[in-house]
Amino acid sequence: MDFLYRMHLVDFDPMDKDEIQKNWHWIKQAIQLSSRSLFQELEKQEFDSLSQSTQAKIHKYLLRGRYRATPFGLWAGVGLGRWGDCNQVDLPLVYSQIEKEEYLKYKQLPKLTTKYRLAPGLKVYSSQVQFWSYCSKEEGWRISYLDKNPLILILISYFKKSDNLGFSNFQNFFNTSNRQELRTLWEMLLESGLLIREGFPAVESTPANIGWDVRIKSKITLSHGIHEKLETLISELGNLFVPVESEYLRNFKSWFVQAYDDRFVPLSLLAHQQDFFTHGAVTESEEHLYNKDLQAILWDEKEELDLSNCFAKKHTDLHHLQIAFKLIGGRDIYIENIVCNRPFAYSGRFSLDPEIKNWAEDNLEAISASSMKADIILFETSKSNHICRHDNAFQYSIYPFGAGIKNDHLGVDDLLLGIRNKRLVLYSQKLDKEILPVVQHPLNPDQISHTLSRLIWEIGNQDQHRFLPYHHPSFQKASYTPRLTWQGIILQGRKWIINSNDFSGKNALLVYLNESEIPCPLIAGHLDRELLLNWRRALELDFLWEELTRMHEVTIFECPWKDNSPFKTKTDQHLYPQFIYSRKGKASDHPKIDFLNRISSPDERWIYLRIAVKEAGILPLLLKPLPSILKHMKNQSNLQKWYFLIYSSARPEIRLRVLTDEKTEKRKLESELARALMESGWVEKVNSSLYYPEYDKYALLDGDMKVSESIFHLESEVVLLGNYEYQTKPIITWDVETRQTWIIETYFNVIQMCRKTEEFLAFYKGLIKGIPIRERKELNKSVNPSTQSYNSIPIEFFESEFSKIADSSEEILMRIIPNHLHMCCNRSFPFDTAMHERQVIYGLYKRLGRSIYGRLNSL
């Protein structure tokens, strides 16, 4: 099949009482599936005997069921169509319900024989345990907590060795034969939410009696000419799509970088990080047009604006594009929506139909071999769960509620989260691939209360683009927007925004509609609750006024397709199908992630302070207060190791790590350091964090970090404190050229010690080739390392530690030494660090080449 279509199932005039009486049985059946309370009012009544207010409610349902294509209950359904020689539909319309899934067999098992697991996100604190629990009454997730007690400690210990727990094993925890007492205790435990049933959430899903999902079997054919017009449009419309980023994602990425830098973090570690779980609106990431008032530039009171006269043609290069449109007459296209990079936005739960699932899968773009798409398992309100139902198009599913319970589950124990190239990246350790979450339904993220589920939803939708008229403020906020076209194709009908504050009453609204020559009928309302209204009829004007007083602001559109469709029933009633043209675009290119700087477990022997420094306070703090504080602490305490690094961000930080012996000493020393830093006059705030060693960067083959931590310590000592033995002042006080020469000579000697001169020459040559050629020429002129360093720290100072890595494999050396060089530059150059590091690398490259060839031609 070539396209999807959605169509209303009411094929008579919704305001004609004779037609209503004729179809009364069908109408009651449709309302029963949509509103049980309304159905109870009319179940044993005829339409004429109902009150005016009830009749009005029925008219509203019928208006939506006549003109709105959004599938809901018996009012509208979904079908498939093909391109052909002409526009036609098979009549009469034939449709049926898409079958619901069968219950899982263990759904009906009694509670006492069901197996249970610990609740998701369980975290043990000093006096409590916290976990995520699902509240059946409120239908949402929340953080719950219980005070520690002997039973909870027994349970935690039990689940360290076992995956599930049933009542029979639970009884073995106690030396009592009072089964009724144990049953009561077991039920209280289940009620607390600390345990969830194995197989969650599938076993908790109930068949929501929300309505039918209707599959229309009748085939529709559209002419090849329509297809050609759409293809031409897509080949020209590229400049009208803009990248967007949700406020949620933007805030989360900022928080994540501050908290974890370039690390890959287990998803389980994020379950209790409350400070970033906030819901945000979509905000722009591109400003290329946003500082202009397009309304003033492009239109005033025009009736129509052809955007092809305003924007240059450009091919659309999205991963996926869907265009929802109606036909006017037999040839003209009226676009109602354009969706970017969300291939399942329209198929959704209708993928439970095998044909529709196949159609959706055929329209998916290719991805690189280093990545894999995966479904997202969600569990929210019964209505949301109904919307989320689908037949998974992929092999794997992301399970955000704990460790995966099936072989095809990717649980929070397996998935790591990091940032690469400003994108959030999910990585599966068992598959050794990047995981691309795919949302296979249209659920709004604001309906997701489970925090990790919401985060994964956002990751799956981070490559968002929007059609400019749906996003730019000039289009969105203007009280009037003309009909937008592209060489004859209507991209958006004429649009007005009306506000209840502008009208004293319904009659004032009627005056405005007449004087402003607002088309009649019109489309009014919000998203899937819109109504087609003939405002010249009193009842339908009432509906418009009700919408306006309820919502305060209503968007209204013209609807030139009304009574102008090429499709009709056998009784000559117009049909208004909405067509979904789905087109896969360029393949998603996700380079293989070769290096994971993973977080595993914290080393709690270390103090880790993140020191937020006042503006212009970095250098003053490094030159005097911090060295003085450290010297004092060294005299007062037995500091084994300490080191610092500088973190550049919107608010610069100095990060200080200190190794301690005992917890009591750690708490005392941490408090003293924080107090002294705050009293320095240059510090805004001091935060304490957990120290997660960077094993992937700095550990030896046996996973030992001690050597690298010792090198960090020695470098930090000489950079901030100098060296008494060599009569050397702190390196941070040296001039720039001397600092550069010292680093070059130190790491040249380290490489010589490792006997890998040629290998590192080739490695750094590759890095230098990545520097723009103009900058390379400047580097070649300015960087001429001397073989002697003034007031230098000799290599012997570091030899005891670097000698421990000298015999490591080339793979390990190529990982450890460049990372140590990077951190040495970080400590030695508080400002313009990246520039100085490039100069050091170029100087080291020259030094290595000179040692082999006597001289080295510049690149």
If you had to describe this structure to a student in words, what would you say it looks like?
35% of the residues lie in helices and 21% in strands. It is α+β, with helices and mostly antiparallel strands and 859 residues long. Among the domains are: 108-204; 496-559, no CATH class; 722-859, no CATH class. The strands form ten sheets. It has a seven-stranded mixed sheet. It has a seven-stranded mixed sheet with strand order 13-21-22-23-18-19-20. A five-stranded antiparallel sheet has the order 25-28-31-29-30. The two termini are 56 Å apart. InterPro entries: Lant_deHydtase_N (IPR006827), Thiopep_bacteriocin_synth_dom (IPR023809). Residues 606-846 form the Thiopeptide-type bacteriocin biosynthesis domain. It comes from Algoriphagus locisalis. Pfam families: Lant_dehydr_C (PF14028), Lant_dehydr_N (PF04738).
Could you give a quick summary of the protein structure above?
With 859 residues, this protein is α+β, with helices and mostly antiparallel strands.
Name the shape in a single word.
Answer: globular
**N- to C-terminal distance:** 56 Å
* Major sheet details: 7 strands, mixed
Assembly state of the chains shown: single chain
Number of strands: 38
Structural class: alpha+beta
Provide a count of the helices. Answer: 27
Low-confidence stretches: 102-110, 278-291
Domain Thiopeptide-type bacteriocin biosynthesis: 606-846
Protein name: Thiopeptide-type bacteriocin biosynthesis domain-containing protein
Organism: Algoriphagus locisalis
InterPro entries: Lant_deHydtase_N (IPR006827), Thiopep_bacteriocin_synth_dom (IPR023809)
